[in-house]
Amino acid sequence: MTDGELVRQVLAGRAQGYEELVRRWAGRVIAVCHARVGRADVAEDLAQETLLRGYRAVRSLADPDKFGAWLCGIAVRACLDWLKAKERTQVVFSVLGAGRNPDEFLSRPAPDDGLGVDRDDERRHVLAQVEALPEEQRQVVMLYYYQDITYRELAQVLGVSPATVNARLTRARALLRERLTGCGR
């Protein structure tokens, strides 16, 4: 059954159609959110918000066959809303007052238990490098590698051509290779 047929079911009052759409699209929505905000925990919350917004606004969808791109657009807007709210609530260290140590406000790493620390550190380092990529490249890497979708599907979700997806992915790989190996060009 296509996305369009499932949307039509939802519009006819059968909520189980939306459950199937959520199963199909939740992973991609999380990847879009993660690529935008750079934090997995926040990305999951924003994906939930996106899916709820999508359900509430499904009647506004002009073309039911373009559900995925529409939902990813909602995800992008949810992320932008979060980023704007985050900017308004951030406090710079200078307002904390003299004599205050910024380390008091930062979380400290958990003690080393010696089990798989090297592998975990390596994963964190790679993910940090992916998250540090420019937004367009980070987004395509997150969707391609974490959601295992094709260039054509990526192009549809991002609203660009497959050639643009290829160019962004090629540039992202080159940047990651450079950063992770420490080799310049």
Give an overview in words:
This protein is mainly alpha-helical and 185 residues long. It has 2 domains: 87 residues, Orthogonal Bundle (Rna Polymerase Sigma Factor, Chain: A); 69 residues, Orthogonal Bundle (Arc Repressor Mutant, subunit A), CATH 1.10.10.10. The protein is built from 8 helices and no strands. It is globular, with a radius of gyration of 20 Å. The termini are far apart. About 12% of the residues have low confidence.
Helicity, in percent?
55-70%
Question: What count of domains describes the coordinates?
Answer: 2
- CATH topology call of the largest domain: Rna Polymerase Sigma Factor, Chain: A
What fraction of residues sit in β-strands? under 5%
CATH class call of the largest domain:
Mainly Alpha
Question: Compute the gyration radius: what is it?
Answer: 20 Å
- The topology string of helices and strands comes to HHHHHHHH
How confident is the prediction overall: mean pLDDT?
80
What are the segments in which pLDDT stays under 50 over at least 5 consecutive residues?
A: 91-98, 100-113
Please identify the structural class as seen in this structure. Answer: mainly alpha
Number of helix segments?
8
- Outline the biggest β-sheet: none
Q: Span from first to last CA? A: 48 Å
* CATH A-level architecture of the largest domain: Orthogonal Bundle
- The counted number of beta strands is 0
Q: At the fourth CATH level, what is the homologous superfamily of the largest domain?
A: RNA polymerase sigma factor, region 2, helix turn helix motif
Large-scale geometry: globular
